[in-house]
């Protein structure tokens, strides 16, 4: 029996939907995830590189760390925009995300 998509896949999907609702398009350069655990929580650390295109790119990036990103079976505990490189049509962005299993 399949457990369903992992946190990285869910995160990619919810980011794509959020960008689409804002009139932007995302394309993925790379996604890297590793398991993470503390004394009380289990989850994963994700590093993601993506390209964002469209009007409103700067505002989307600026507000990304405050957006509610619902993930089935997981919680986004922390999201940091680590790098931003502006392009002629948008930006290349690196984000780091900590998800915790619920």
Comma- or semicolon-separated keywords:
four-stranded antiparallel β-sheet, alpha+beta, 102 residues, 4 strands
Describe the secondary structure blueprint for this structure.
Blueprint: H1 7-21, E1 25-37, E2 42-53, H2 57-63, E3 74-86, E4 90-101
Antiparallel strand pairs: 1-2, 2-4, 3-4
Give a quick summary of the entry.
With 102 residues, the chain is α+β, with helices and mostly antiparallel strands.
| Percent of residues in beta strands | over 45%
Low-confidence stretches at least 5 residues in length (pLDDT < 50)? none
Query: Helices and strands, in N-to-C order?
Result: HEEHEE
Class per helix and strand makeup:
alpha+beta
Number of helices: 2
* Major sheet strand order: 1-2-4-3
Quaternary state of this entry equals single chain
Radius of gyration: 14 Å
Measure the end-to-end span: 20 Å
Number of strands: 4
Percentage of residues in helical conformation = 10-25%
What does this 3D model show about the protein?
The protein has helices at about 5-20, 55-65, and strands at about 25-35, 40-55, 75-85, 90-100. By secondary structure, it is an alpha+beta fold. The chain has a 4-stranded antiparallel beta sheet with strand order 1-2-4-3.
């Amino acid at each position: 029996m399949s457990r369903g998509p992992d946190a990285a896949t869910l995160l990619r999907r919810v980011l794509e939907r959020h960008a689409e609702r804002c009139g932007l398009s995302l394309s993925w350069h790379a996604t890297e995830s590793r398991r993470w655990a503390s004394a009380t929580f289990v989850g994963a650390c994700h590093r993601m590189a993506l390209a964002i295109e469209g009007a409103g790119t700067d505002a989307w990036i600026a507000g990304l760390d405050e957006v509610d990103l619902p993930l089935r079976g997981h919680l986004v505990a922390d999201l940091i925009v680590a790098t931003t490189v502006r392009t002629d049509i948008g930006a290349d962005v690196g984000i780091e995300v900590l998800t915790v299993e619920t």
